[in-house]
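Input (structure):
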């Protein structure tokens, strides 16, 4: 898995938005959604899991 600078920037922005939802979300459903979306973003970068998605 080779990540370029542009790929790392996109990944960082996506995970930053997910963390902001988790940290500053007004209710528990939004916080759970932020964690779930962040998990999918990370899972798409893992070679074995991304093949299954």
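Output (sequence):
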């Amino acid at each position: 898995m080779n990540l370029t600078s542009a790929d790392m920037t996109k990944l960082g922005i996506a995970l930053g938005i997910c963390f902001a939802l988790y940290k500053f979300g007004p209710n528990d459903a939004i916080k759970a959604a932020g964690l779930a979306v962040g998990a999918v973003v990370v899972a798409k970068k893992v070679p074995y899991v991304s093949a299954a998605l």
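Notes: The chain has a mean pLDDT of 91. The helical segments are 5-24, 28-43, 47-52.
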